[in-house]
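Example (one chain per record):
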Amino acid sequence: MNPKVSVIIPCYNEPEDVFRRSVESVTAQTLKDIEIIIVLDNPDNTELREIIGDYQRVFDNILLLTPEKNLGRGNARNLAIGSAQWKYIAIHDADDIDMPRRLEEQFTHMEQNPQIWATFSAIQNMDEHWEVIPQTLTVPSVDAKSFFLKWLNHQTMFIRSQVLRSLGWYKDINFGEDVDLWMRMFIEDIKISGIETVHTHYLTPLESTHSDSIEKLKKWRITSLEFYRAYFKYLVKDPVFIRLFITNLLDYAALHMGRKNYVRYRNAIQRLKQKND
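Predicted structure:
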């Protein structure tokens, strides 16, 4: 077999049912010429190690990487990228579900558009019961004038390997490593495209079971503010920069009101947006 795509799946403490659904959505892809690189970023998680071993006995295209210590998401992906053999790299998170034709359609799109270096697809949010959450469709808008309105969905990123290597891969940060990568792509004028098809069902942070979601969101908001500072000279002219800066500050404050109050706050914001649209 000569794989065309290296699929990268970092995992840590995902529950068995979540992890199995996620991995099996990759093994069931219509594009069969792939290698699946799983990084178990928790050396003490023997349960996940055994589950991955079960899959390896069935599928000969699964490679397991087991670092001796926790690397964090960015470095876990870097470890996999360093082992990737092929032209394209596809990002897949261990608690999301890919549609069966995701990789085939992204691969065909990239092969037909050699001037494009990375592509992103639409995602649909789902809750802890594996039900799609209505009105949560996010479609990439790569032609948007604002960097912040491009709506790039990291869970669907399909990128040429040489681009990641030329950009220096992911930085050693645990939150916002995807946005930091996109900022560097933006600075280097890397050509990207968007596919309107829903290719991934995304377990939203508030529903996610693999970490404390509120603490995770707090860290993400702080990282966003640090990101704004680091790339300020590139972002200050962005037409929505100030709005996003204020929104992040308000969101960070709301996260300190507890989960229930934060959900009420987010729902109120969503209703306000819908009213203004």
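Caption: Strands lie at 5-11, 34-40, 62-65, 88-91, 97-98, 118-126, 132-138, 158-160, 192-203.
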